[in-house]
Specification:
272 residues; alpha/beta; Rossmann fold; seven-stranded mixed sheet; 9 helices; 33% helix; globular; binds S-adenosylmethionine
Length: 272
């Protein structure tokens, strides 16, 4: 059912309120983010690396880079990386961790147009950020705008089914013992997919991943999620844009969505 303009306005306001603590929450999380044995990044990283392929010599944009987890291995692999985040605390950790002439960090809110030129990147990576964004269409439009036509975006998110288990991004502050949840929205998988397709991306692969017993042995915190999907990873191809279809910092004309594919198992073949 379509919403009326006033319903849509209320929804946007409610989403903004939910997300009002994200920046401050991650500023607090920054000091312990890399050390709190969170199983999700461990489940995610090999999938993102494999989906992105060889990064050597490529120009890569890391959206919501956090403490630089993806930025670090990309630089190590020989990429030039532009890493964007709005949390000063997370960026400070990332700067400390990754010092290289091939990385630049930009403090920026992903709800605003990227301060980056069109068609200037070979790849976009974004790890575990989508649940903190109210404007998925704007995010994917900007990701596609800055990609070259043969560029690829690999975007991961905490699986929406985690919300059914009462789980969302949160950490325990080691100083106060307080559980801090920066603020997350319960998007659905179709919200991710359709936002990407409406922007003009082609969906190359959609993977949903659950921890198996071997993973749980290594990351005991994941035991309660054994065989439960914790992670979704979209691999998208930018393709050519119709002339005049993209304006800097905004949505262009949305082409008809392309076909979506879904692969429910984590044992997918490598991309050609
Ligand atoms: C769960 S962390 C993931 C960090 C990193 N990508 C990783 O996978 O380790 C989410 C990150 O998204 C950032 N973030 C959330 N909303 C944002 C926004 N509107 N603009 C910029 N960064 C945002 C947070 O500051 C945080 O660093």
């Amino acid at each position: 059912m379509e919403s009326t303009p006033s319903q849509a306005g209320q929804t946007r306001r409610a989403a903004s309120e939910t997300l009002s603590g994200v920046q401050a929450g991650y500023d607090r999380w920054a000091a312990v983010y890399d050390h709190d044995a969170n199983p999700l990044p461990a489940l995610e990283e090999p999938r993102v690396r494999e989906a992105l392929g060889d990064a050597g010599g490529r120009e890569v944009l890391d959206l919501g880079c956090g403490t630089g987890r993806h930025t670090a291995w990309l630089v190590e692999a020989g990429a030039r990386v532009t890493a964007v985040d709005f949390s000063a605390g997370m960026l400070e950790e990332a700067r400390r961790k990754v010092s290289s002439g091939r990385v630049r960090f930009i403090a920026h809110d992903l709800h605003e147009p990227l301060p980056l030129p069109e068609a200037s990147f070979d790849a976009v990576v974004s790890g575990l950020v989508l649940e903190h964004l109210r404007d998925l269409a704007g995010f994917f439009a900007e990701a596609r705008r800055v990609l070259r036509p043969d560029g690829r975006a690999v975007v991961s998110a905490m699986h929406p089914s985690m919300f059914l288990r009462g789980s969302q991004a949160r950490f325990t502050d080691p100083d106060s013992g307080e559980v801090v949840a920066p603020g997350s929205l319960p998007h659905r998988i179709c919200d991710f997919v359709m936002a990407g397709l409406h922007t003009g991306f082609t969906l190359r692969r959609l993977g949903e991943y659950a921890p198996d017993t071997g993973f749980v042995k290594r990351y005991p915190r994941a035991e309660r999620y054994l065989d439960w999907p914790m992670l979704v990873v979209l691999t998208l191809e930018a393709g050519r844009r119709a002339p005049g279809s993209v304006r800097a910092g905004g949505l262009g004309t949305a082409p008809e969505p392309g076909p979506a594919s879904r692969e429910p198992t984590s044992r997918e073949p490598a991309l050609p």
